[in-house]
Sequence to fold (183 residues):
Amino acid sequence: MPTPRAYLSHVVLQCFDLDAMVDFYTKIIGFHLSDLGEARGQRMAFLSLDPSVEHHQVALATGRKPGDGGALHHVAFGVRSLAELNERHEHLKRNGVKGIELWTHASMLSVYYRDPENNRLEFFLETPYYVKQPVALTLDVDLAAPEDEVFGAIARKFGADPSFGLMSEWKQRTARQREDAGA
Fold:
């Protein structure tokens, strides 16, 4: 039986200071506070970047204690344009957000950063390219530059890789392979 298709719906983070986290996600990152309440002894906040699409993409919950380990590596949020990625990047810098790094995965251009409790977050823009993953390299580009210049830097960096190509072609090829396999 084929595996059903899925998408990232939401991530829940347990917090030391729920109010500080809600402030960060709403005031700095721009989330809408969809709901705030208590369930099973935990205060919780439900946040969305676009409530017309999703009620919440991130939920924050009280209950994290010093010494608690966590398995979360990072949470990624897509943006629709290079201008929006640049706007997010500049906004993070203006607000003194820690750990801001510009990376490329060839198929994505990413701005990584940390929230007040040191959780790693990412805003990313999909590029037109595919390169076999994992790829994670820093990229020294001006996000305010024209898109063809920024994407050109990525193509120059990865163009010699044997797997380099267009993401649209990779998606078509993968869809055919899944169909052929009965997935």
Q: What stands out?
A: The mean pLDDT is 88. The chain is about 25% helix and 30% strand.
